[in-house]
Amino acid sequence: MPNPLKRPSRPGERSANGAGANGSNGASRGAQGVEAAKEGGGGLVGWVDERSGATGFLTGMMFRKVPKGTNWFYTLGSATLFAFTAQAITGVFLAMYYTPSPTEAYESITHLTNDVWMGEFVRGMHKWGATVMICLIFLHMGRTFFFGAYKYPRELNWVIGVVLLILTLVMGLTGYLLPFDQRSYWATVVANNITATGPVVGPYLADFLRAGPEVGATTIQRFYAIHMLLVPGLIAALIGAHMYLVVKLGTTAPPWLKAERPKNARKKTEVG
Fold it and tell me: How many angstroms separate the CA atoms of 174 and 187, rounded?
């Protein structure tokens, strides 16, 4: 029972016992809070991982073994992926101000370039980023070919890479028309006429892209839909499949790297 005649303590003044008790209680509460935070974060990660199973893929992706002799040529695939990500991000911002109409497309691009804050910078990144991505994917395909990384068991990954190359070129073609100025208009007319000269499917493909007897309002809307929705979705899906096969099958060693001799192998002796 507390002593009623005891002088109450002043603010900030505590007894030795009280200080010890309060200090231990505060420390225990702090430790409990830290543990609860850890358990909450771990529980959330575990909950997501149990339903997605992403740990196995991420572990294989981040901690996979690479062959001896790996050099900067092996970063071309990651550089291409980075370029595609930059194109996707800048394309979303450009789509916020762009109007796919033959009478308003050029005015919307002019407004974006001259009036919107950082608009010219974002458009420049998207414009030159398309060229960078095409160059990088050609270099990546060349490295894969000359290093022999298309051979068994990686033939499917090579086919996916070829399709990604074609889709990247389609992205460049459909995006070139969107400013709808004189240069982009006549360049699209020439490209469409070249497509029409293809065997069997050429004329049908040209009619599909043109969406009418000539390049006009329906053409720019179709190109915009293909450029913004169809092709990026296909590229993202194929990149996922491509990366999965890279993790599953591993990376090939450089062709100039000779296979190491097993340590337990016996040296051949001449007979005779």
Answer: 11
pTM for the predicted model, two decimal places: 0.76
For the chain, the average pLDDT equals: 85
pLDDT tens column, 24-73? 555 566 555 545 555 555 678 788 888 887 777 777 777 777 888 888 99
Burial of 62 (0-12, 13-18, 19+ CB in 10 A): exposed
CA-CA distances (angstroms) from residue 268 to 58, 149, 258, 272?
44, 32, 19, 13
Structural domains in the chain, CATH included, are 74-249 (1.20.810.10)
Q: Quickly list DSSP for 92-159.
A: HHHHTT----TTTHHHHHHHHHHTSTTHHHHHHHHHHHHHHHHHHHHHHHHHHHHTTTTSTT-HHHHH
Q: Are 167 and 134 in contact (CB under 8 A)?
A: no
Tokens of 57: 């893929």
